[in-house]
Design goal:
The protein has 225 residues and is mainly alpha-helical. The chain is 89% helix and 0% strand. The chain is elongated and about 60 Å long.
Length: 225
Amino acid sequence: MTNKKNNNVPWQNPLIYLLAFSSGFCIMGIELLGGRILAPFFGSSVHIWGSIITVFMLSLSFGYLAGGKLSTKNASLNRYGLIFIFAGIAVLPVAFSSEWLMEAIFLAVEDTRYGSLLASMALFFVPTVILGMISPYSVRLLVTDKDKSGQVAGFLYFVSTLGSALGTIITSFYLVLLFEVNDIIMVFSTALIVLGVSAMIFNRVNQQKNNSNNSSITLQEAAHE
């Protein structure tokens, strides 16, 4: 068991921090784009942004709760990668279904306050819940010493929030000026799926390495006997 943990430390932890950074980047990028998606139908006044922020905060809170609970059941890098893949898939309807969905809600709900709130829930609740699961799951994978759990969690949230800050400024300053909103959403979705697959590949390679090392140790012990 000790050998397995030592083999994981050099590359697994930096990978988890990179993934947490990337998830923070994507969350804030998608949130900012939410304003551009809703604007043609509901405008861009303060209550529109109030709806978007409320939905993101609410869904992230549920995601934190679900991710913490999930992390207590045989946490692994493989399952961690699956969270990213599911998040990437859940983001896709934002690109493909936003226009007709916004139009339907706009026609059904006269008050733009409640219409924007309902539209934000319909588009962003599910993918943001899944993205919210990443942070607590990351902490579970990173913490190997309970005495350092606070330090690890603090650094993880620093990295994740730094990603959110960069996602905010890069999306608002550059991406929206260079690309269509749906194209940016597709990039975020693809990036999440690629990151998830990368985590699963790393987990598989690491397991094969550990199995090889364990086999070598067993053969050496047998030879000595």
